[in-house]
Amino acid sequence: MPDLYLIVLHKPGVRRAQLDLLLRSVEENWPDAFPVILNADSGHDFQRDLEMLLACNDSPYTAFACDDGVVFRPIDDRLYKLALAQPNVLCWSARLGANTTRCDPTGRDQTPPAYVGVRPWRWTDAEGDFAYPGSVDAHVFRSDHLRELLTLPTPNPTALECALTEGCKLVSWPYPLMASGRLSAYTGVPVNRVSDQSGVVHGRRHPQTVEELDARYAAGERIDLDSIDPSQVDAAHTELLFRWS
Questions:
Q1: DSSP 220
Q2: pTM confidence score
Q3: Which domain does 195 fall in, by range?
């Protein structure tokens, strides 16, 4: 049984190049995570499949990830295990750290807690992304607790994040804390969009269409994981210009 169940939200046949990048990055930088693909196609019964995955999950920890994400530096599993051993910690974030000083897509600056990566912070008093535990981008929860948080309908990935956010709000009193590593290790790369529901801002700096990326993937090219420069990541969502190999 893996320690961490990583449920990857993916629309089949779309973003194949980016999904490939994510899975390779998980294998290299988050080996304790066991990725499972959840069909995010609008014509599929997303809620039924999600409930089945959560019901059969025997791992003590669960996180979600989107197929446009990448784990760009190693994640030490001891960090989230120690954090979630504390009774008031709601989740541990791989996408936050002292380097995430910008809140995307608003583009506004945000101030990380002074002790981020050293001890948990009160998300109920924080700002920007540091006040948002209900993300489906690499936030690690206790598996049993996560199932209790998801009480609202989840017909698609956008509704899933809404349901998770509302669930987190309901437990803000007993679980007012979040934690992360000193530096973020995961970022979403919003160079394109495939969801009609999300409305996520994308492709402002380095637009790269799904069609363009998948054509190169079909031709045998792969996005180069080693070319991703961690110093470029200053937010939980960071547009990167992909290099190929």
A1: T
A2: 0.95
A3: 4-232
